[in-house]
Every structure is written in structure tokens, then in C-alpha cells.
Amino acid sequence: MVAAYVPEIDLLAIAELVPELPELRTPLSPVTARAALAGTINGDGLGMTRALDLYHSFVVANSNAQGGVRSLAYVPNAPCAEAVVLDSLLSGATFMGTSWQEASGAVAAENQALRWLADLIGYDERAGGTFVAGGTIANVTALAVAAHRMRAQYPGEELAVAASSEVHSSVRMATKML
Length: 178
Fold this sequence. Notes:
178 residues; single chain; extended
């Protein structure tokens, strides 16, 4: 149980640490970014205080947060304090949910969440899946599965993908690969 490893978590205090959405910023030029970060990666390290200062003064100050209504296509994480805490705990756990052999607990939890989603959508018991890190790999995976199934069902037939001109670049890339 997580509570055994984390004495007491004040989720409201943690929520205050999550920065508010900043105004949209113009990206730095690569030259400016390299100059600002020169010497930060070195054999001695920066130390926690300097690293956190650099994170706040440079990384956050020169990045656009992807949460909120202006970024519905980009969802980097669940926007709540509980998700931030659990993401941190999972990051520190050093296991991967890639197979039952390595992490049956993580895989079982993923399967439970997938089953809940499948039930919510109305899919039958045969439905399955996996969570992936982002939209690009989700698109590539979905197209690969579809291509595999269609090739098995219609051997020798040419496959086609219908998409609008606004389709994500990963769909174009995946159709060329597959």
C-alpha cells in the first residue's frame, strides 16, 4: 500500500506547487537556449538548489504548459494533484509494466483500467489494449493493428487510409512505414 511508503501526503499543499498556466510564449532560438544552458551538464552536477532554480527560471519560464482549454490535443498528464503524486511514486518505483513477468501488479492495474474503459464504451469481454505514452505512438500502434488485421482478412489487397488535411503528422508517417 502506498501509504506505508509515504508517511502523509498533503495533496492540497502539493497542488500549490503545480504552476499555473503561463501566458503563451514565443520559443527561444536554439542559439539562445544553448547559450543559456552552457555548462549546466558537467561532471560535478549542479546540486539540487541550482537545478530547481534552473528548472523554474529557464525550463518553466521558456515552455508553454499543455494543460487547459487551449491545448485539448496535447494532454501530457492528468491535471490533478493526485495524478502528480502517483506519477512521482511510479517514476521512483523503477519498474515497467511491460509484461506480467516483470510487473504483474502494474499490468493488473492497467488491465483493470482498460476493462473499465471498455465497459464504459460498451465493448465486450474480448476487448483489450494497452496504454501508450502519447498520441504519436497511439496513432502508429492503431494503424499497425488495423493494417495487420486487414492484411489477414484481405491478403494481397492494397490498403488505404482516409484522413483530412489536418491529420496529425504521425498518421502520415505511419502510413508510409506500414
